[in-house]
Glutamyl-tRNA reductase (Isoptericola chiayiensis), 464 residues
Amino acid sequence: MGGTVVLISLTASHRELDLDALERLSTGSESVGRTVVGSCRPVQGAVVISTCNRFELYLDVDAPLDGDVVRHATRHVAALVAEASGVSTETAAASFAVRTGSDVAAHLFAVASGLDSMVVGEREIAGQVKRSLVVARDQDTTSKTLELLFQTASRTSKQVGHHTALGGTGRSLVALGLDLAGAVLRPYPAARAVIVGTGAYAGASVAALRARGCADVRVYSRSGRAAEFAASHDVVAVGADTESLVSALAEADLVVSCSGARGRGGAAPAPGAEASLEYVLDVAAVARARERAADRAGDEPESDALVILDLALHRDVDPQVADVEGVLLYDLSTLKANAPATEHAVVEHARRIVADAATRFEETRLGRAADAAVVALFDDAERTVAAEAADATARLAAELAPLGAEPSEDDLEKIARDARRRAHSALHHRIVEVRAAALAEARAAEAAVVAGAERSLRVTEPVD
């Protein structure tokens, strides 16, 4: 039986889950895409988006029209995610919101445009969506359909940023965290900051701190990438050893931790177990740093508080750090609670842009059947043109025969041109009708393929 390409997205985000559940679910996210494509034959491509507040898996499935393979593939993916994340298959299955067909594009475009973020309109997510596609390319798990989907998502994000007020508000988790920290810190031009991590949020943090006048910025990474990051961002690198980190913390007013390094690498944890007991910033290191800061202050008034922003989903910072005297810890839950509202009209404008882009994408994606139908119309029209031209030529030849003449080349060209003009003048409306009917048929066929996929996630069954 012939196959059809179906898009499926499995989404777990701060909107569907609490952050603790999301952290457990996304622990094994780095390897899931490659594992799915390598072990589930109908899955032609997979792209994973894993950020501080979402874990999403986009699948390109080549499935028979009965839909059984799609349902099996979806269940199989849930089991693989469960195995990589150390949770039960039932927990993983129940955690996902499943989208299929046209809903996939609409959702991804909204995500890339910042409309599904904790801070509506955040711009970092656009870069994370781009990097997800790059990773899929590197792992050889993308597909033509997913390439088109993610590239269109990036273009849509740019359109939202350009045509709505969301593009100029500077909204982001980093900005929100720095605004909260700024309420209790010394003025930013006098503050000293340490960034933990060297990824996208680290770069955004440097830019945001500089925009607020903070010049004393240091970067720490236990992976050893701090020196390279520092050179490219004109900041100071901290040694990768614990002692260097403690020294930097002792002099800092603000820590922005966004490495997401906890729980990465190594084998998957046992079901129900924590991803890793090792935090990037643990209680001992922070307590030692505060003791050093107090010793250095001597008889002077009590040293300023150390504000720590933990922007990593996998909790760079041990939550018990909040109990250390003189430390204020703001994590993703705090930021989520303090995320500002966005003007309704601005969001609706952005959503219209996203909806239009999703509609155009679906017409392009499903348009192959429609294009074939249109080509068939043109073929029929050409056959009609040929038949009418032959009849007209025969009549003209009969009229000229008594005169001992034959139709000239100009006569033949005019006959063909007139016949083609008559045929094509009636073709436009037929093209519109046939294209709409073909698109509707393609959508109906796809709906038949994916029917029951979400229901199958909720039912326990053996996974091959």
Notes: Residues 3-169+449-457 form a domain with the Beta Polymerase; domain 2 fold (CATH 3.30.460.30). The radius of gyration is 30 Å. The first helix runs from residue 19 to 25. Residues 1-5, 263-277, 460-464 have pLDDT under 50 and may be disordered.
